[in-house]
Amino acid sequence: MSGKAPTEFAPAATTTTTANNTASAPNTQGSKSKSEAQLKKEQAKAAKAAKRAAKKYDAPDTPAGPPATPKSQQQQGKQQSQASAHGGKKERRGSQGQKAPAVKETALPVHSKKPAVPPKQVGLFGHLYGMDRRHGIEGAAKEVHPAVLALGVQMSSWVVCGSTARCAAMLLCFKSVIQSYNTPVGTSLARHMVQHVLSPQIDYLKSHRPLSVSMGNAIRHLKALIVSIDPSTPDEEAKQFLCDAIDTFIRERITAASTIIAGTAADKIIDGDVILVYANSSVVCKALLLAHSQGKKFRVVVVDSSPLFEGKCLAKDLARADVQTSYYVVTGAAHAVREATKVFLGAAAMMANGRLYSRVGNAIVAMLAKRLDVPVLVLCESYKFTERVSLDSIVNNEVGPAEDLLASLGIMKQPGDATEGGAADEDQLETREARITKWKDTPNLQMLNIMHDLTPAEYITMVVTEFGCLPPSSVPAVLRNLEGTGKENKP
Protein backbone atom coordinates (compact mmCIF):
# COMPACT_ATOMS: atom_id res chain seq x y z
CA MET A 1 0.00 0.00 0.00
CA SER A 2 1.31 3.42 -0.91
CA GLY A 3 -0.33 5.29 1.95
CA LYS A 4 0.53 4.75 5.63
CA ALA A 5 -2.11 4.48 8.29
CA PRO A 6 -2.16 7.50 10.58
CA THR A 7 -0.63 6.87 13.97
CA GLU A 8 -3.21 9.03 15.75
CA PHE A 9 -6.99 9.05 15.26
CA ALA A 10 -8.96 12.27 15.26
CA PRO A 11 -11.97 12.23 17.61
CA ALA A 12 -14.45 12.71 14.79
CA ALA A 13 -12.87 10.19 12.37
CA THR A 14 -14.22 6.65 12.24
CA THR A 15 -12.61 5.43 8.95
CA THR A 16 -9.27 5.78 7.16
CA THR A 17 -8.92 6.36 3.44
CA THR A 18 -6.09 4.78 1.45
CA ALA A 19 -4.56 5.93 -1.80
CA ASN A 20 -6.10 3.03 -3.71
CA ASN A 21 -9.52 3.98 -2.44
CA THR A 22 -9.11 7.57 -3.63
CA ALA A 23 -7.95 6.38 -7.01
CA SER A 24 -10.96 4.10 -7.49
CA ALA A 25 -13.64 6.64 -6.56
CA PRO A 26 -14.89 8.38 -9.71
CA ASN A 27 -17.80 10.35 -8.14
CA THR A 28 -16.14 11.53 -4.93
CA GLN A 29 -17.53 15.07 -5.09
CA GLY A 30 -21.13 13.99 -5.63
CA SER A 31 -21.10 11.31 -2.92
CA LYS A 32 -19.41 13.67 -0.47
CA SER A 33 -22.01 16.39 -0.93
CA LYS A 34 -24.80 13.83 -0.65
CA SER A 35 -23.42 12.40 2.58
CA GLU A 36 -23.04 15.88 4.08
CA ALA A 37 -26.69 16.69 3.31
CA GLN A 38 -27.85 13.44 4.90
CA LEU A 39 -25.61 14.15 7.87
CA LYS A 40 -27.16 17.56 8.45
CA LYS A 41 -30.67 16.08 8.34
CA GLU A 42 -29.70 13.35 10.77
CA GLN A 43 -28.07 15.89 13.06
CA ALA A 44 -31.24 17.99 13.07
CA LYS A 45 -33.34 14.91 13.87
CA ALA A 46 -30.95 13.90 16.63
CA ALA A 47 -31.08 17.39 18.17
CA LYS A 48 -34.88 17.36 18.19
CA ALA A 49 -34.94 13.88 19.73
CA ALA A 50 -32.46 14.97 22.39
CA LYS A 51 -34.63 17.97 23.30
CA ARG A 52 -37.75 15.80 23.58
CA ALA A 53 -35.91 13.24 25.67
CA ALA A 54 -34.54 15.95 27.98
CA LYS A 55 -38.07 17.19 28.65
CA LYS A 56 -39.63 13.75 29.08
CA TYR A 57 -36.96 12.05 31.11
CA ASP A 58 -34.76 13.19 33.94
CA ALA A 59 -31.55 11.28 34.56
CA PRO A 60 -30.40 11.80 38.18
CA ASP A 61 -27.85 8.99 37.92
CA THR A 62 -26.08 10.49 34.88
CA PRO A 63 -22.46 11.25 35.85
CA ALA A 64 -21.65 14.93 36.02
CA GLY A 65 -19.22 16.30 33.44
CA PRO A 66 -18.31 19.46 31.57
CA PRO A 67 -21.09 20.91 29.45
CA ALA A 68 -20.93 19.79 25.83
CA THR A 69 -20.07 22.45 23.29
CA PRO A 70 -21.95 22.72 20.02
CA LYS A 71 -18.85 21.45 18.21
CA SER A 72 -18.54 18.33 20.33
CA GLN A 73 -22.28 17.66 19.90
CA GLN A 74 -21.85 17.94 16.14
CA GLN A 75 -18.92 15.51 16.20
CA GLN A 76 -20.88 13.05 18.29
CA GLY A 77 -23.80 13.30 15.83
CA LYS A 78 -21.40 12.53 12.96
CA GLN A 79 -20.12 9.46 14.78
CA GLN A 80 -23.63 8.14 15.41
CA SER A 81 -24.84 8.78 11.85
CA GLN A 82 -21.74 7.21 10.25
CA ALA A 83 -21.91 4.22 12.54
CA SER A 84 -25.55 3.62 11.58
CA ALA A 85 -24.70 4.06 7.89
CA HIS A 86 -22.10 1.23 8.07
CA GLY A 87 -24.46 -1.41 9.39
CA GLY A 88 -24.66 -0.24 13.00
CA LYS A 89 -21.19 -1.55 13.96
CA LYS A 90 -19.97 -0.42 17.35
CA GLU A 91 -16.24 -0.85 16.55
CA ARG A 92 -14.14 -0.05 13.49
CA ARG A 93 -10.56 -1.09 12.83
CA GLY A 94 -7.84 0.98 11.12
CA SER A 95 -5.55 -0.20 8.32
CA GLN A 96 -3.12 -1.74 10.85
CA GLY A 97 -5.78 -3.54 12.91
CA GLN A 98 -6.06 -0.92 15.64
CA LYS A 99 -9.48 -0.44 17.24
CA ALA A 100 -11.17 2.86 16.62
CA PRO A 101 -13.03 4.48 19.52
CA ALA A 102 -16.45 2.86 19.83
CA VAL A 103 -19.55 5.00 19.93
CA LYS A 104 -21.25 4.42 23.29
CA GLU A 105 -25.00 3.98 23.29
CA THR A 106 -26.70 5.81 26.15
CA ALA A 107 -29.96 4.23 27.27
CA LEU A 108 -32.67 6.61 28.34
CA PRO A 109 -33.95 5.99 31.87
CA VAL A 110 -37.32 4.27 32.06
CA HIS A 111 -39.61 5.44 34.85
CA SER A 112 -41.26 2.62 36.77
CA LYS A 113 -45.05 2.63 36.94
CA LYS A 114 -46.59 3.94 40.13
CA PRO A 115 -48.25 1.27 42.26
CA ALA A 116 -52.02 1.14 42.17
CA VAL A 117 -52.24 1.43 45.97
CA PRO A 118 -49.81 2.74 48.59
CA PRO A 119 -47.19 0.14 49.56
CA LYS A 120 -48.57 -0.29 53.09
CA GLN A 121 -52.11 -1.08 51.94
CA VAL A 122 -53.19 -4.56 50.96
CA GLY A 123 -54.14 -4.37 47.31
CA LEU A 124 -57.14 -6.70 47.57
CA PHE A 125 -58.72 -4.38 50.15
CA GLY A 126 -57.35 -1.12 48.72
CA HIS A 127 -60.84 0.26 48.03
CA LEU A 128 -61.72 0.03 51.75
CA TYR A 129 -59.02 2.31 53.14
CA GLY A 130 -60.61 5.57 51.98
CA MET A 131 -59.69 8.70 53.86
CA ASP A 132 -57.54 8.74 56.98
CA ARG A 133 -59.42 7.94 60.16
CA ARG A 134 -59.99 10.95 62.41
CA HIS A 135 -59.04 10.58 66.09
CA GLY A 136 -59.77 14.07 67.40
CA ILE A 137 -61.97 17.09 66.86
CA GLU A 138 -59.39 19.16 64.98
CA GLY A 139 -60.71 20.51 61.70
CA ALA A 140 -64.35 19.68 62.43
CA ALA A 141 -66.99 21.88 60.84
CA LYS A 142 -68.45 24.61 63.01
CA GLU A 143 -71.95 23.15 62.51
CA VAL A 144 -71.06 19.96 64.38
CA HIS A 145 -72.80 19.75 67.76
CA PRO A 146 -70.61 19.27 70.89
CA ALA A 147 -72.42 16.00 71.71
CA VAL A 148 -71.58 14.67 68.24
CA LEU A 149 -67.95 15.78 68.65
CA ALA A 150 -67.66 13.71 71.82
CA LEU A 151 -69.34 10.67 70.24
CA GLY A 152 -66.97 10.68 67.29
CA VAL A 153 -63.93 10.55 69.56
CA GLN A 154 -65.53 7.77 71.60
CA MET A 155 -66.19 5.77 68.43
CA SER A 156 -62.66 6.07 67.07
CA SER A 157 -61.16 5.11 70.45
CA TRP A 158 -63.48 2.05 70.75
CA VAL A 159 -65.19 3.36 73.89
CA VAL A 160 -68.51 3.09 72.04
CA CYS A 161 -67.96 0.02 69.91
CA GLY A 162 -70.94 -2.27 69.17
CA SER A 163 -73.46 -1.56 66.44
CA THR A 164 -76.34 -1.33 68.96
CA ALA A 165 -74.46 1.05 71.26
CA ARG A 166 -73.32 3.25 68.38
CA CYS A 167 -76.82 3.51 66.93
CA ALA A 168 -78.47 4.39 70.25
CA ALA A 169 -75.76 6.94 71.11
CA MET A 170 -76.05 8.55 67.67
CA LEU A 171 -79.82 8.95 68.00
CA LEU A 172 -79.48 10.53 71.42
CA CYS A 173 -76.93 12.98 70.00
CA PHE A 174 -79.28 13.83 67.15
CA LYS A 175 -81.98 14.49 69.71
CA SER A 176 -79.71 17.08 71.34
CA VAL A 177 -79.02 18.60 67.92
CA ILE A 178 -82.76 18.93 67.20
CA GLN A 179 -83.50 20.48 70.58
CA SER A 180 -80.86 23.19 70.08
CA TYR A 181 -81.89 23.90 66.47
CA ASN A 182 -83.49 27.17 65.41
CA THR A 183 -84.93 27.48 61.92
CA PRO A 184 -83.44 30.43 59.98
CA VAL A 185 -85.76 33.19 58.77
CA GLY A 186 -87.17 32.61 55.31
CA THR A 187 -87.06 28.81 55.34
CA SER A 188 -88.72 25.84 57.05
CA LEU A 189 -87.44 23.06 59.27
CA ALA A 190 -88.32 20.33 56.77
CA ARG A 191 -86.31 22.00 54.01
CA HIS A 192 -83.33 23.23 56.01
CA MET A 193 -82.53 20.67 58.71
CA VAL A 194 -81.49 17.64 56.63
CA GLN A 195 -79.00 19.41 54.36
CA HIS A 196 -77.57 22.07 56.65
CA VAL A 197 -77.82 20.54 60.12
CA LEU A 198 -78.02 16.76 59.98
CA SER A 199 -75.55 16.16 57.13
CA PRO A 200 -72.54 17.81 58.89
CA GLN A 201 -73.14 15.61 61.93
CA ILE A 202 -73.24 12.47 59.79
CA ASP A 203 -70.12 13.41 57.83
CA TYR A 204 -68.22 14.01 61.04
CA LEU A 205 -69.18 10.60 62.45
CA LYS A 206 -68.17 8.94 59.16
CA SER A 207 -64.72 10.49 59.43
CA HIS A 208 -64.15 8.59 62.68
CA ARG A 209 -65.64 5.24 61.68
CA PRO A 210 -67.84 3.97 58.84
CA LEU A 211 -71.50 3.90 59.75
CA SER A 212 -73.00 0.53 60.61
CA VAL A 213 -76.09 -0.84 58.85
CA SER A 214 -78.19 -0.11 61.93
CA MET A 215 -76.99 3.52 62.00
CA GLY A 216 -77.80 3.90 58.31
CA ASN A 217 -81.31 2.53 58.80
CA ALA A 218 -81.92 4.87 61.73
CA ILE A 219 -80.66 7.88 59.74
CA ARG A 220 -82.93 7.08 56.80
CA HIS A 221 -85.87 6.69 59.19
CA LEU A 222 -85.16 10.09 60.76
CA LYS A 223 -84.68 11.84 57.41
CA ALA A 224 -88.00 10.45 56.15
CA LEU A 225 -89.72 11.89 59.21
CA ILE A 226 -88.09 15.31 58.76
CA VAL A 227 -89.05 15.74 55.10
CA SER A 228 -92.61 14.59 55.84
CA ILE A 229 -93.27 17.48 58.26
CA ASP A 230 -95.63 20.12 56.93
CA PRO A 231 -93.69 23.39 56.35
CA SER A 232 -96.45 25.31 58.13
CA THR A 233 -95.92 23.35 61.35
CA PRO A 234 -94.47 25.50 64.18
CA ASP A 235 -90.88 24.75 65.07
CA GLU A 236 -91.55 23.70 68.62
CA GLU A 237 -94.22 21.23 67.56
CA ALA A 238 -92.03 19.79 64.80
CA LYS A 239 -89.02 19.46 67.11
CA GLN A 240 -91.13 17.75 69.76
CA PHE A 241 -92.46 15.32 67.15
CA LEU A 242 -88.93 14.38 66.05
CA CYS A 243 -87.67 13.93 69.62
CA ASP A 244 -90.65 11.71 70.44
CA ALA A 245 -90.02 9.68 67.28
CA ILE A 246 -86.39 9.13 68.31
CA ASP A 247 -87.46 8.01 71.77
CA THR A 248 -90.01 5.64 70.22
CA PHE A 249 -87.40 4.15 67.89
CA ILE A 250 -84.97 3.51 70.75
CA ARG A 251 -87.69 2.12 73.01
CA GLU A 252 -89.42 -0.16 70.50
CA ARG A 253 -86.84 -1.10 67.88
CA ILE A 254 -83.81 -1.38 70.18
CA THR A 255 -84.70 -1.84 73.86
CA ALA A 256 -87.98 -3.76 73.59
CA ALA A 257 -86.76 -5.80 70.62
CA SER A 258 -83.62 -6.94 72.47
CA THR A 259 -85.73 -7.86 75.52
CA ILE A 260 -88.07 -10.02 73.44
CA ILE A 261 -85.14 -11.67 71.64
CA ALA A 262 -83.38 -12.37 74.95
CA GLY A 263 -86.52 -14.06 76.31
CA THR A 264 -86.91 -16.22 73.20
CA ALA A 265 -83.23 -17.24 73.24
CA ALA A 266 -83.34 -18.00 76.98
CA ASP A 267 -86.20 -20.43 76.36
CA LYS A 268 -83.89 -22.39 74.04
CA ILE A 269 -81.42 -23.04 76.89
CA ILE A 270 -81.95 -26.17 78.97
CA ASP A 271 -80.13 -27.61 81.97
CA GLY A 272 -76.74 -29.05 81.09
CA ASP A 273 -76.27 -26.93 77.96
CA VAL A 274 -72.89 -25.55 76.98
CA ILE A 275 -73.47 -22.27 75.12
CA LEU A 276 -70.63 -21.03 72.94
CA VAL A 277 -70.55 -17.30 72.16
CA TYR A 278 -68.11 -15.22 70.16
CA ALA A 279 -66.77 -11.77 71.12
CA ASN A 280 -69.40 -9.62 72.82
CA SER A 281 -73.04 -8.91 72.02
CA SER A 282 -75.41 -7.00 74.27
CA VAL A 283 -78.45 -9.08 73.32
CA VAL A 284 -76.54 -12.37 73.77
CA CYS A 285 -75.35 -11.25 77.21
CA LYS A 286 -78.93 -10.30 78.16
CA ALA A 287 -80.22 -13.73 77.06
CA LEU A 288 -77.58 -15.61 79.08
CA LEU A 289 -78.18 -13.56 82.21
CA LEU A 290 -81.94 -14.02 81.86
CA ALA A 291 -81.58 -17.80 81.56
CA HIS A 292 -79.33 -17.84 84.63
CA SER A 293 -81.86 -15.78 86.61
CA GLN A 294 -84.50 -18.40 85.73
CA GLY A 295 -82.45 -21.00 87.61
CA LYS A 296 -81.14 -22.93 84.61
CA LYS A 297 -77.83 -24.76 85.02
CA PHE A 298 -75.60 -24.27 82.01
CA ARG A 299 -72.06 -23.33 81.12
CA VAL A 300 -70.79 -20.63 78.76
CA VAL A 301 -67.69 -20.80 76.54
CA VAL A 302 -66.51 -17.38 75.32
CA VAL A 303 -64.32 -17.32 72.20
CA ASP A 304 -62.48 -14.08 71.54
CA SER A 305 -59.93 -12.58 69.15
CA SER A 306 -57.72 -9.56 68.59
CA PRO A 307 -57.50 -6.65 68.26
CA LEU A 308 -60.42 -5.56 70.50
CA PHE A 309 -60.84 -8.67 72.69
CA GLU A 310 -64.46 -7.74 73.35
CA GLY A 311 -65.15 -11.17 74.82
CA LYS A 312 -63.24 -10.25 77.96
CA CYS A 313 -66.00 -7.84 78.99
CA LEU A 314 -68.66 -10.50 78.39
CA ALA A 315 -66.73 -13.11 80.36
CA LYS A 316 -66.33 -10.69 83.29
CA ASP A 317 -70.04 -9.82 83.30
CA LEU A 318 -71.01 -13.49 83.31
CA ALA A 319 -68.49 -14.36 86.01
CA ARG A 320 -69.83 -11.57 88.25
CA ALA A 321 -73.31 -13.09 87.86
CA ASP A 322 -71.95 -16.51 88.99
CA VAL A 323 -72.33 -18.06 85.54
CA GLN A 324 -69.75 -20.80 84.93
CA THR A 325 -67.61 -19.39 82.14
CA SER A 326 -64.60 -20.52 80.10
CA TYR A 327 -62.51 -18.21 77.92
CA TYR A 328 -60.75 -19.14 74.64
CA VAL A 329 -59.00 -17.20 71.95
CA VAL A 330 -60.02 -17.90 68.37
CA THR A 331 -57.04 -20.20 67.80
CA GLY A 332 -58.70 -22.66 70.18
CA ALA A 333 -62.14 -22.42 68.56
CA ALA A 334 -61.92 -25.95 67.14
CA HIS A 335 -61.57 -27.37 70.66
CA ALA A 336 -64.18 -25.02 72.15
CA VAL A 337 -66.85 -26.00 69.62
CA ARG A 338 -66.49 -29.68 70.55
CA GLU A 339 -67.75 -28.84 74.05
CA ALA A 340 -70.74 -26.78 72.88
CA THR A 341 -74.35 -27.89 72.50
CA LYS A 342 -75.54 -24.55 71.05
CA VAL A 343 -73.90 -21.49 69.54
CA PHE A 344 -75.28 -17.97 70.12
CA LEU A 345 -73.98 -15.24 67.83
CA GLY A 346 -74.65 -11.51 67.73
CA ALA A 347 -75.07 -9.57 64.50
CA ALA A 348 -74.05 -6.28 62.98
CA ALA A 349 -76.42 -6.84 60.05
CA MET A 350 -78.45 -9.50 58.27
CA MET A 351 -78.24 -9.30 54.48
CA ALA A 352 -81.17 -9.86 52.13
CA ASN A 353 -79.63 -13.14 50.94
CA GLY A 354 -79.60 -14.47 54.52
CA ARG A 355 -75.92 -13.95 55.26
CA LEU A 356 -74.66 -12.71 58.62
CA TYR A 357 -72.40 -9.66 58.69
CA SER A 358 -70.65 -9.45 62.04
CA ARG A 359 -67.31 -9.19 63.84
CA VAL A 360 -64.53 -11.05 62.04
CA GLY A 361 -64.29 -14.58 63.40
CA ASN A 362 -68.01 -15.37 63.51
CA ALA A 363 -67.80 -17.23 60.20
CA ILE A 364 -65.05 -19.50 61.55
CA VAL A 365 -67.11 -20.42 64.61
CA ALA A 366 -70.28 -21.00 62.55
CA MET A 367 -68.52 -23.24 60.05
CA LEU A 368 -66.89 -25.31 62.81
CA ALA A 369 -70.28 -25.70 64.51
CA LYS A 370 -71.93 -26.74 61.24
CA ARG A 371 -69.31 -29.44 60.73
CA LEU A 372 -70.06 -30.89 64.19
CA ASP A 373 -73.87 -30.50 63.80
CA VAL A 374 -74.09 -27.90 66.56
CA PRO A 375 -77.09 -25.54 66.03
CA VAL A 376 -76.17 -21.90 65.39
CA LEU A 377 -78.65 -19.23 66.55
CA VAL A 378 -78.18 -15.61 65.47
CA LEU A 379 -79.76 -13.03 67.79
CA CYS A 380 -80.56 -9.97 65.70
CA GLU A 381 -83.04 -7.08 65.94
CA SER A 382 -85.01 -6.29 62.80
CA TYR A 383 -83.62 -2.75 62.50
CA LYS A 384 -80.31 -4.39 61.53
CA PHE A 385 -81.88 -6.04 58.48
CA THR A 386 -80.86 -4.58 55.14
CA GLU A 387 -81.92 -4.95 51.53
CA ARG A 388 -78.30 -5.17 50.42
CA VAL A 389 -76.97 -8.47 49.09
CA SER A 390 -73.39 -9.51 49.83
CA LEU A 391 -71.53 -12.54 48.52
CA ASP A 392 -68.23 -11.90 50.28
CA SER A 393 -66.67 -9.64 52.90
CA ILE A 394 -64.28 -7.93 50.48
CA VAL A 395 -66.58 -5.53 48.63
CA ASN A 396 -68.02 -3.95 51.81
CA ASN A 397 -66.07 -4.01 55.04
CA GLU A 398 -64.14 -1.87 57.50
CA VAL A 399 -60.35 -1.74 57.82
CA GLY A 400 -59.14 -0.72 61.26
CA PRO A 401 -55.79 0.90 62.04
CA ALA A 402 -52.89 -1.53 61.77
CA GLU A 403 -51.41 -0.07 64.95
CA ASP A 404 -54.36 -1.48 66.91
CA LEU A 405 -53.52 -4.96 65.66
CA LEU A 406 -49.87 -4.59 66.63
CA ALA A 407 -50.79 -3.23 70.05
CA SER A 408 -53.19 -6.10 70.74
CA LEU A 409 -50.47 -8.61 69.95
CA GLY A 410 -48.13 -7.00 72.47
CA ILE A 411 -45.77 -5.69 69.79
CA MET A 412 -46.48 -2.04 70.49
CA LYS A 413 -46.63 -0.76 74.03
CA GLN A 414 -49.65 1.34 74.81
CA PRO A 415 -49.12 4.62 76.70
CA GLY A 416 -49.14 3.96 80.43
CA ASP A 417 -48.60 0.19 80.14
CA ALA A 418 -46.28 -1.26 82.76
CA THR A 419 -43.90 -4.12 82.02
CA GLU A 420 -43.31 -6.98 84.39
CA GLY A 421 -40.21 -9.05 84.91
CA GLY A 422 -37.56 -6.43 85.55
CA ALA A 423 -35.00 -4.72 83.37
CA ALA A 424 -34.38 -7.75 81.16
CA ASP A 425 -37.99 -7.82 79.96
CA GLU A 426 -37.98 -4.04 79.43
CA ASP A 427 -34.84 -4.25 77.30
CA GLN A 428 -36.36 -7.05 75.28
CA LEU A 429 -39.56 -5.06 74.80
CA GLU A 430 -37.64 -1.98 73.69
CA THR A 431 -35.63 -4.04 71.19
CA ARG A 432 -38.78 -5.60 69.81
CA GLU A 433 -40.51 -2.22 69.57
CA ALA A 434 -37.53 -0.72 67.79
CA ARG A 435 -37.77 -3.48 65.21
CA ILE A 436 -41.53 -3.82 64.75
CA THR A 437 -43.09 -0.43 65.48
CA LYS A 438 -41.29 0.93 62.42
CA TRP A 439 -43.15 -1.54 60.22
CA LYS A 440 -44.02 1.26 57.82
CA ASP A 441 -40.32 1.57 56.97
CA THR A 442 -39.92 -2.19 56.49
CA PRO A 443 -40.24 -3.20 52.82
CA ASN A 444 -42.68 -5.95 51.85
CA LEU A 445 -44.41 -5.85 55.26
CA GLN A 446 -48.16 -5.15 55.34
CA MET A 447 -50.68 -5.25 58.17
CA LEU A 448 -54.39 -5.90 57.57
CA ASN A 449 -56.82 -5.23 60.41
CA ILE A 450 -60.13 -6.31 58.87
CA MET A 451 -63.10 -5.79 61.18
CA HIS A 452 -65.99 -7.90 59.85
CA ASP A 453 -66.71 -11.10 57.95
CA LEU A 454 -69.69 -12.70 56.23
CA THR A 455 -71.23 -15.99 57.36
CA PRO A 456 -73.11 -17.98 54.66
CA ALA A 457 -76.78 -18.72 55.31
CA GLU A 458 -76.25 -22.49 55.19
CA TYR A 459 -74.22 -22.31 58.41
CA ILE A 460 -77.05 -20.58 60.32
CA THR A 461 -79.80 -22.71 61.89
CA MET A 462 -82.19 -19.86 62.73
CA VAL A 463 -82.37 -16.12 63.32
CA VAL A 464 -84.03 -15.04 66.59
CA THR A 465 -85.86 -11.72 66.11
CA GLU A 466 -88.61 -9.84 67.92
CA PHE A 467 -90.99 -11.50 65.44
CA GLY A 468 -89.90 -14.99 66.49
CA CYS A 469 -87.43 -17.63 65.28
CA LEU A 470 -87.07 -17.36 61.49
CA PRO A 471 -84.88 -18.97 58.82
CA PRO A 472 -82.19 -16.75 57.28
CA SER A 473 -84.11 -16.65 54.01
CA SER A 474 -86.95 -14.70 55.67
CA VAL A 475 -85.04 -11.41 55.79
CA PRO A 476 -86.80 -9.95 52.68
CA ALA A 477 -90.20 -10.88 54.13
CA VAL A 478 -89.41 -9.07 57.39
CA LEU A 479 -88.32 -5.99 55.46
CA ARG A 480 -91.57 -5.94 53.49
CA ASN A 481 -93.53 -6.29 56.71
CA LEU A 482 -91.67 -3.35 58.26
CA GLU A 483 -92.34 -1.17 55.23
CA GLY A 484 -96.07 -1.85 55.50
CA THR A 485 -96.47 -1.37 59.26
CA GLY A 486 -93.74 1.13 60.10
CA LYS A 487 -95.59 4.28 59.13
CA GLU A 488 -95.37 7.15 61.62
CA ASN A 489 -98.09 9.72 62.31
CA LYS A 490 -97.16 13.06 60.82
CA PRO A 491 -97.73 16.29 62.77
Automatic annotation (TrEMBL):
An example of a GO molecular function for this protein is: transferase activity
* Biased segments, Basic and acidic residues type: 33-45
| Subcellular localization | Cytoplasm, Cytosol
Q: Which residues form a coiled coil?
A: none
SUPFAM superfamilies tied to this protein: NagB/RpiA/CoA transferase-like
| Primary location group | cytoplasm
What are the boundaries of the region Disordered? 1-119
Q: Which UniProt keywords apply?
A: Cytoplasm, Initiation factor, Protein biosynthesis, Transferase
What top-level branch of life does the organism fall under? Answer: Eukaryota
* A Pfam family: IF-2B
Q: Low complexity: which segments have biased composition? A: 1-28, 70-86
Q: Which GO terms describe its cellular component?
A: cytosol
In terms of InterPro entries, this protein maps to: IF-2B-related, IF_2B-like_C, NagB/RpiA_transferase-like
Query: What quaternary arrangement does the UniProt entry report?
Result: Component of the translation initiation factor 2B (eIF2B) complex which is a heterodecamer of two sets of five different subunits: alpha, beta, gamma, delta and epsilon. Subunits alpha, beta and delta comprise a regulatory subcomplex and subunits epsilon and gamma comprise a catalytic subcomplex. Within the complex, the hexameric regulatory complex resides at the center, with the two heterodimeric catalytic subcomplexes bound on opposite sides.
Q: Which family does it belong to?
A: Belongs to the eIF-2B alpha/beta/delta subunits family.
Q: What name does UniProt use for this protein?
A: Translation initiation factor eIF2B subunit delta
Species name = Aulographum hederae CBS 113979
